[in-house]
Design brief:
Blueprint (H helix, E strand, L loop, with lengths): L14 E5 L12 H9 L5 E3 L5 H13 L4 E6 L1 H11 L6 E5 L5 H5 L6 H14 L3 E10 L4 E4 L2 E3 L2 H11 L6 H13 L4 E7 L2 E7 L1 E5 L21 E6 L4 H7 L14 E6 L1 E5 L4 E4 L2 E5 L2 E12 L2
Parallel strand pairs: 1-2, 1-3, 3-4
Antiparallel strand pairs: 5-6, 5-16, 7-10, 7-14, 8-9, 8-13, 10-11, 11-12, 13-16, 14-15
Helix pairs in contact: 1-5, 2-3, 6-7
Amino acid sequence: MLAVTADDHSSTGPVAVLANPTAGRGRHRGLLPALLERLATAGRPVELLTAGTPAEAEAACHAAVADGAGALIAVGGDGTVHRALQAVAGTAVPFGPVPAGTGNDFAADSGFPADPLDAVEMIAAALREGRTRPVDLARMTGAAGGDRWYGAVLAAGFDAIVNERANRMRWPRGPRRYDLAILIELARLRPRRYTLRLDGEVHELDAVLVAVGNGASYGGGMRICPDADPTDGLLDVVVGGRFDRRTLMRVKPRIYQGTHVTHPLVRSYRARTVELAAEGITTYADGERSLDLPVRITAVPGAVRLLR
């Protein structure tokens, strides 16, 4: 991964910080003053962004970048990172993810320490030295147009369907809602017909699991696309075929180690551009509700400059 020096990015604007106090069920909430204090050791003004909803958080990041922020830092999990990436993708504004959520896959796969204080130390050192490292992002375009970016994984199969079910449920609260959604969707499990176009080559297939990875992991360490490299300019596509319930439940635990890709019903592909279509699927990118299929996904080399 190539390091970029201060000559390539000389902005001296303030360091904007987006912090999600509810990330990781609030377990790092008390750390924020210490994180901001360590960030200030870089010798740059630090501005904490205010937002009450995810949409407001994304808007605040866009506004900070438009107003001349010299860097953007996201304190939270993959959802917080996802909102911030929309503002810095394709710009020269450097970015630092501070892992403080239940899922910190983008930060982990990009080489940041798991401890938030250690991650901030790395970011502050990079700011002092004017050092950034370019990393790829995935750019999505839906049928209605308009781009969205993600850094980790796009889920477009069983996991996305479970997320969609859980988000529609009003009871129970907390993690049990997701567990119940899994049981409901397992009972309804059936392969879906997908059309997959990889750099123009068409594949028609029936599948239960479909993931398009810029990085390797989603869901807090599940290595769904274990060979994905966010610096190779390519997307990894992993497809789990006609699983029945029993087979799916046997294969799912193997995703944490990435060994599921050796199962005979799992296929892996690699491409610069992925077009994915199926009926009635809403995708989830970086764990966040995203675009309905069909979508076109393109690997964009060096789309974000990381402070590390």
